[in-house]
What we know:
By secondary structure, the chain is an all-alpha fold. The chain has helices at residues 5-30, 36-56, 60-86, 103-106, 108-122, 128-142.
Amino acid sequence: MDAFQPIAADWQQIIVFISIASMLLGAFAAIGQTNIKRLMAYSSIGHMGYALVGLAANSQAGVRGVAIYMLIYLVMTLGTFAFILAMRRKEGNVEQISDLAGLSSTNPIMATILTILMFSLAGIPPLAGFWGKWYVFLAAINANLYA
């Protein structure tokens, strides 16, 4: 972290602004989506905003938090896409959120796992996604980014 210390303060406000903008864009653009892949794409935009919070902390804890967050995000996103691809139907791929209607009746195990993956991506405690966001925000709080 010392190599960038002279310019870190200059970039910190920019990274915080981009982080907040990314979180807001990802969250609000995802609201009206009916296509699963597009929803996941907007979710990714929001998640990169959370990752930037850790980088804006400009500390080893921030970098560690981002690494943990990215590892958790990678597993959850790959798992979600794997389940979406595994849910092929006679009519074709599952592309719309409405295509998931009745999944708990037809395949309750897959529905449960997909629900856990999606809740983890949303950061619901006590799932892994919550802890990833916890470490990122803890680094930001320790760096006094809230003031």
